[in-house]
Amino acid sequence: MNEHPNILFINTDQHSWDAISAYGNPYLNTPNIDLLHQNGTSFTKSYCTDPVCAAARSSWATGLYTSETGVPFNGGQLHTDIPDIGQILRNNGYRAFHCGKWHVPGRNVRDSFEVLYYGNQQIGAGGAAYYDSASTHAVADFLTKYDSNEPFYLQIGYIDPHDVCEYLHNHEEKHIPNPLEQGILTEDDLPPLPENFNYDERETVLHRVCRRIDGALIHDRILQAVKNWDEFHWRYFKWNYYRFIEKVDAEIGRVLSILKQTPFCENTVIIFSADHGEACGSHQLFQKFALYEEEIRVPFIISCLGDGFQIKKNKLDDTHFVSGVDLFPTICDYASIDIPEICQGMSLRPLVEGKDKPWREYAYIESNYWGRSIVTDDYKYITEYKPRNIEDFLPPGPDSERLGLVQLFDRHDDPWETANLVDSPEHQEAINSCRDKLFQQESRLNKQEIVHQNPMRTITNWGNRLREYWTHGK
Amino acid sequence: MNDSIQSLHWSFNYNHGAQKPFYAEEFLKLLHEIQINTQNDVFNDEQPEYIKQVYEILPNFWKGYSRTNEALAIGNVVIERKHENSHNWYYNVHYQNTSSGENIRFNFRCRDDVYRTLLDSWQVDVQNKSGDRYSKMELNGNLISDTEIQLYINDFQIAAGTVDNSSPLTCNWALYDVIPSILSDKRQLDFSVEIALLDDLEHLRQKCNLGYLDSIREPLPLDGYFLYGEGLLPSYWWVDTNKTVVIVSTVFETLVLKEITRGVS
């Protein structure tokens, strides 16, 4: 391998870790992502930094957590002084290309990358039906014509399976019969209800206000619609989700089949991941924004279709906790670029090469500005900060005085996260230990005050609703 | 108009979100003003030698997506086919989408059978109008021994899959003829047909199912059929009494017939 290989980062949107056939899911068929796994190393303990598009993508672009980037939710704005991966690569001898979804507000993708395709009306949150196929066409055109001697970095942002959000929006204002009533599927065609369809209602206030109560802050109209769903609607939702994934898998397959025919095949490292997952009925939730496994655990594969890299193939790494902040330093490492000191992530390259390296003992995830989670081998810890009475717009934590409610799940006995152990006396030590890890991680963050008016308005409005719930319980 | 809006079938009722109230008005206007052109030398009981259909593409998007133009339609599809001889149909499809910026021409041949079985070779020419580095792409394809699909993208050869022999292979743009011919009068819920699709002449989708969905009287007398399969989102196809597909709806868009011409080529 030369010191400046080509790097191809393929990402999907809203793609849960287990929605890949190579990992044993019998309800969908993803031969092309499977091919990436067969030719590389998959990290099974891979977590996004924040289960929503813009926030997670701001971490990909910078190697920072979302309370550092200025994008702690979809309406955030990336702080202007933070360099992104496109800028870093271009300053170090690479041609950096972008194609498809970007969704890092506050940073014009065209300022940091050469753009192959970004849609006629600019690609926002969704639109896979049009943009994914066009993105593949753009990449096909690029790979078959690239003749520069300079190494390239190419990131392809596929939108699917995010368009499952459109499927959900379609239920907001009309009743759609379940598939058995429609007569198009039988019960045997449908995946079963998730094991954790029923859930422990002792959730954080933040989660209740954002996702559960009437008038929820996020997608309340879908929430009202799914209250009228029967079991088959939920199962059909998952069935549809898998079809969206199969669609994007076919697009990925086209890119891989072209790459194989080009001179770049041996010298291109391929990274595959997703910005966040999809609840798909687990805990009776839909979409993302929550800190349960289905929403935060994502695929992460490092692969090469040839033998040009020392990458362990067909390997499942179930040892190391991987985070979205690791993408940036991994790319730097492969490109032989010094990793900026402010970067929170660590390069995964030594891991896929089978080398020992000191590694983190837990994953750290943020959500909806005030939500926090620590995932260890033994426990999942979810908590929240209470909003300040007078907001200073500095993302919260570490702050023991403002911690709100806690959820603790035993990852061995309760992998589906259905029994909150917060009131269990024998688990108080585990709760304390996780809280210490949370504060330890947060003390390492370089948080900046949110200064853009739109996210400030969101924080103010959401904070008001949260305070109302804390005060009045509604 | 309001009663008509209320009566829209769930499979194509997208009168909500950003489209309110324009979606239903535009949809029904298109449906009630379908332009039917019949050339002089073609009679109702004759098989036309040439058919051209124009469909408007209406967005089913949630209101979060911006549309900078005032028109609801975000593009159109023109499907032309002519009978080349007693055995084949030649298709020329022009797809224009102002949202993606892609302008695509599909050219292919099909056997003159009920499945419009895909024949020999085809071409896809894509122009991208969105202004970025990607401006065009050429895709050529051919069938090897009726089952193996070979594609060439900008002259790079790639394998695109092998068709399971048990299912006839057709193209999604030929379904506008396939569905009326094999499903008309098949109004049984338990009736379905399995086909293989070469989606946009690029992606092979095996084991796709076509079947009967429903029949409606308003806004027009129509029979509805569904299509689903691996890698495909369910789509709903509505056929009028003249065996013409007038509505095709998926989760993201609805195609509504605007114009049909039958005649000689």
Can you give a write-up of this model?
The complex is a heterodimer of chains A (474) and B (265). Chain A is an alpha/beta fold. Chain A has helices spanning 31-38, 53-62, 66-69, 85-90, 109-112, 128-143, 164-169, 179-182, 205-212, 220-226, 231-261, 293-296, 327-334, 349-352, 428-443, 453-472; strands at 6-12, 40-43, 46-47, 95-100, 114-117, 152-157, 268-274, 300-303, 315-317, 322-323, 363-367, 371-375, 379-385, 403-410. Chain A folds into 2 domains: 6-165 and 235-352, 3-Layer(aba) Sandwich (Alkaline Phosphatase, subunit A), CATH 3.40.720; 363-472, Arylsulfatase, C-terminal domain (2-Layer Sandwich). Chain A is 33% helix and 15% strand. In chain A, the strands form 3 sheets. An 8-stranded mixed beta sheet of chain A has the order 5-4-6-1-7-8-2-9. A 4-stranded antiparallel beta sheet of chain A has the order 11-12-13-14, with helices on both faces. The longest helix of chain A has 31 residues, at 231-261. The N and C termini of chain A lie far apart (59 Å). Chain B is mainly beta and 265 residues long. Helix content of chain B is 9%, strand content 50%. Chain B contains 3 helices and 16 strands. Chain B has a 16-stranded mixed beta sheet that branches. In chain B, a hairpin with a 5-residue loop joins strand 12 and strand 13 (222-229). Chain B is globular, with a radius of gyration of 19 Å. The mean pLDDT of chain B is 87. The interface between A and B is large, with 58 and 58 residues.
How many discrete domains of chain B?
Answer: 1
SS summary, helix count of chain B: 3
Q: What order do the helices and strands of chain B follow?
A: HHEEEEEEEEEEHEEEEEE
Low-confidence stretches of chain B: none
Q: How far do the termini of chain A sit from each other?
A: 59 Å
CATH class of the largest domain in chain A: Alpha Beta
- Any guess at the CATH architecture of the largest domain in chain A? 3-Layer(aba) Sandwich
Using a beta-carbon cutoff below 8 angstroms, give the protein chain pair with the largest interface and the number of residues from each chain.
A-B, 58 and 58 residues
- Proportion of beta-strand residues of chain A: 5-15%
Write down how many β-strands of chain B occur, each being a DSSP E stretch of 2 or more residues.
16
Q: What value does the average pLDDT of chain B take?
A: 87
How are the strands of the largest sheet of chain A arranged?
Answer: 5-4-6-1-7-8-2-9
